[in-house]
Amino acid sequence: MKIIVVGTGFVGLPHAAVLAEAGHEVYAYDIDQNKIDAYRSGDRERIEEIVNEPGLVEAIEETKDRYLFFTSDLAPIIEGTDIVFMCLPTPPKRDGSTDLSYYTNAAHRLGELLAKRQDERRVVLVNKSTVPIGTARVLQKILEEHGVKNFGVASNPEFLAQGGAIEGSRRPDRVVVGADTEEDFDRLRRVYSQFVNHVRIRYLETTPETAESIKYVANTLLLTYISFWNGIGARLGEIYPNLRMEDLKIGVTSDSRISTWGSYVSNGAGGSCFGKDIQSLIYQLNRAGRSTDLLQAVYNINEYQKTYLIDRAVYEAGFNFNNKKVALLGLAFKKRTNDMRDSSALKAVEALLARGVSEIRAYDPLAMNEAQRTWFNPEKNHLFSRITYHESPREAIEGSDAVYISTDWEEFRGLATTIEKAAPPPYLIIDGRRMLPDYRQLVAKGYAYLAVGDVYLKPEAPAEKTGANGQERVPAAAEA
Ligand SMILES: NC(=O)c1ccc[n+]([C@@H]2O[C@H](COP(=O)([O-])OP(=O)(O)OC[C@H]3O[C@@H](n4cnc5c(N)ncnc54)[C@H](O)[C@@H]3O)[C@@H](O)[C@H]2O)c1
Hints:
- By secondary structure, this protein is an alpha/beta fold.
- It has helices spanning 12-21, 33-41, 44-50, 56-63, 101-115, 135-145, 165-170, 182-191, 208-239, 245-253, 274-287, 293-305, 308-315, 344-354, 368-375, 393-397, 415-422, 439-444, and strands at residues 2-6, 25-29, 68-71, 83-86, 123-127, 151-155, 174-178, 202-206, 325-329, 359-363, 387-389, 402-405, 428-431, 448-451.
- Helix 18 links the parallel strand 13 and strand 14 (448-451).
- Helix 5 (101-115) packs parallel to helix 6 (135-145) and helix 9 (208-239) packs across helix 12.
- Mean pLDDT is 94; it is low at 461-480.
């Protein structure tokens, strides 16, 4: 198959690499010349600056210039194409609706070129972006407007989780294909021949509207699980000192009808999908005059989690952030990625700056360049100049008055020792991910400890909370 992947970001690049591994002739196209240059160079550092995913560079190395080609010029590759995958950004607008401009711009460009192609062969345009229900018809109209002949449109939503994009593309839970004709279904079966009739992978063929809906319903259900535990589990743990959060989780999820995924408490779920997808679904339902109370509550709880520990530090621990230095550990929205889109750390930074901190001493194992390049740009907000960047947790903690743990990087589980070495008590530890198994020792040594899902533990608190049967805390699991 000759395949064009339009948009080579977090979805398009891994998708293109895995299609190339399956022996298709894949052209990965992007309007961003810098990205294309970096991918073409094959240079690990340059590629990982853009998309940092385990196994991605290796997959590109294996296939580049044999099955996988990178280009920023669409016209020369259009002839003879069997399939076009649309992997374009669909960010939220202010009102929660989806900004489809990237998507429709690409569709118009494709329409222009496909209308002029010489070959008569059927081409199928397949949508992998998360788009409002009904967008396959929008794409169809755009192509018709341009006079494109012999084409089909299909919806094939992407379910990969960042941090596992390559593995998720090689072995997805399911492949959902929404199309209108047997011919188009058949085309997609040939692309995904390794998944059709697979013993473990569900291969579902349905209508485009159903496929588009599946993506929204799945993502909002996942966020509902997370908000359920944050909105109920965390609140209970914060009220009752003798409540053991890990036992609560085990006891509840031992019921085979209840998901273990999402059964953790945290400082909210970030990333480019959950927040935007639930806002978009709320908008779509509202526009049709339907109730969105449940979804709105789920969204609000998730947003609340992102900063409420900072408020608790003020009201429960009596900590005054004004002119204080705070170490911020973890900037990426979850571990194993450099992606900071909608990361909880962004909201924490806003809240800390609003409370007058003199310095935020930031550290992340992967996202430091991303942070400096885009989000924490002093030209956007002069207060961002209060953010300093550090090479290790220890360096970030040294000289600070408090630490805020925002991301569930495994290396933070060993922070107790680092804190003891770098910051003598009195010192406040704010743990948004319940990452410190040794928190009791720290409290006994005079540290103040405030974690999501727990009562505030004063330094040398006499009534310490114990983990169940001496168990260690389990850190918040990774989100999708
Ligand atoms: N990131 C995820 O984990 C994830 C998971 C599932 C679904 N999705 C969905 O997939 C879509 C893409 O997400 P992403 O995270 O890969 O976005 P991204 O921003 O990382 O990548 C999009 C790419 O499209 C390129 N682009 C923009 N306009 C273009 C045009 N006109 N022609 C060619 N290229 C163009 C950009 O330069 C960029 O490289 C979104 O709809 C998202 O909701 C994302």
